[in-house]
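Q: A reviewer asked whether we had any structural model of the full assembly, not just the individual parts. We don't, so I'm hoping you can provide one. Inputs are below.
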Amino acid sequence: MRRDWEAFSFHLAIGVIAVLALILLVAPTAIVLIVSFTSGFSLRFPPPGYSLRWYVALWDAWQLHFAAMNSLKVAAWATFLSVVLGTLAGLGISRSSRLSAKLMDGLFMSPLILPALAFGLSSLMFFSALGLPVSPLTLIIGHTVVCVPYVVRNTVAALSQLDPTLLECSASLGAGKVYTFRRITLPLIRPGILAGGFIAFMSSFDNVPVSLFLRDAATDMLPIRMWQDLEGKLDVTIAALSGVLIVFTIALIMVMERFTGLSRRLA
Amino acid sequence: MQTASNETQGTASGGRALVVDAVTHRYGSSTAVENINLDIRAGELVALLGPSGCGKTTLLRIIAGFIRQTEGRIILGDEVVDDLGPNRRRIGIVFQNYALFPHLSIAENVAYGPAAQGIGKAEREAETKRLLELVKLGHLADRLPRQLSGGQQQRVALARALAIKPRILLLDEPFAALDKNLRLDMQIEIKRLQRLSGITTVMVTHDQEEALSMADRVAVLSQGRLEQFAAPTQIYDRPDSLFVNTFVGTANQLSGQVLASDGDMATIRLDAGAELRARSPGGVLASGQRCTVCLRPEHLEMTDDPAGFAAVVEMGLPLGATVVHEVRGADGAGIKVSEPRRAGTALRATGTPVRVRPLSPDLATAYPA
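A: Here is a predicted structure for the entire assembly that you could use as a starting point for your response.
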């Protein structure tokens, strides 16, 4: 009887904490989605009535479209470079047990730990010392640096799951190194690389600190544009845009989950 | 069998398929294998048998080309292959965990070797089909490895290894991952395929029954050294060393003293109180020397013969076809005696005095203590 009560109270406490955590995580997203359908002119919750007017307004907000295209382009380039460079780095690091490989691993991971603002400022100074003016190029390079750790980490993790006997087996069947890489290693670590690339893409897409320092005046980035719009006039269009981004992200996550088992890789 | 294998493997000079020539391998300061010599005939199935850490896996990996030995040579047919990487030795390997490529279908797994060697699609598909029929898995060609049972996976691994038309086949603990019932079926199956194809095969195992039942010859290894390389019956009946005698099968170890030594036989006085003749491998015993006599339980009998030594029954264990009695000799040594059991005969009671003797003198073997 006493034991039953202990078990019950334990499960109750855990359950309550879990529900609170869930509310804390999900509620803001839910509130933004609900507010985006407001018929009023403010971000007040709950909305006075419901309409699609802000989604219609979003359709005509060319400044946001322009910024979104910039952010997409930069994120695509940064992801592409991160995947290529990060995969190569991951291969090199995981195949070596030398101290230098461990150091390189730490170096590639450092952008995750270093404050992004400090990195943004220092890379701005670095580029100007090189005589490179801020441009889409510097922006892409900066984003690549902060995105590459995700690909490196996921590639190394995928490689550590790869049974080395498979590579020996491939060799014993007459395959050279390149053939083995193309037909065994790459297909088996591809889900890990894709998962890393996906996170890299998302982190580039909503990166603010690096973009603040490394973009030029003509390259308007979506997160910064959104902030400026909100700051100026508490624009409900931004809530509609947030709604679109949320749906877009959830769809992407579902696609990635289907192809790479993303949630297992992040656990 | 020998003639059949010579037809298919008629490459090697004098029917030799694989020579391990004075191979030594050291990891840092520790020696994994030391001066191993093996001369393996074409078509033979040889088992490398030994406890874990005896160097058998290292030797297999040296033959395969995954490890470069510190000293000695590996000769395949007439060719010294030390400078060839594993992908250029044309050695088929069935790995312990099968190492099937998880993302490729069964047919793609089997066709992998030929594809890597640039063999055309039509030829490769025909060969894959033939091999999958050979291992009776033609109907599963499009499945993925994880959809197959352990025994089926092993047959795929075997077909894949055979697809490269290997000069020799290496099996690394091939039955360790299978449950006991399946193991016997697969042992028969692999032996059948090995005879059918006549391919020279080297198998690594720690399971003595597996080695004795399947192999034409068994190489027993201990602590990196080759203890004996001979036919299974020879290994079992006429072991060369105390290690082989005790590792393969079970053996009672009795201590005694050499009374006289003549060549490879010796007369020994057991501490338990009897004189007996015993084989002395290599004739290394000198008279007066302390020695250990090994006698297998089934090579002993309990009689009334005064030539045997006195003992007292401690316990009887009926094991179906045989009955094992644990008896204690005058010097306190425990001895197991295994005899055929006749239905209806009672066990000998605890405390019964008996006399024990070997069935025949050449079944006792003496080693320096």
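A: Points you may want to mention in the reply: The radius of gyration of chain A is 23 Å. Chain A has a mean pLDDT of 89.
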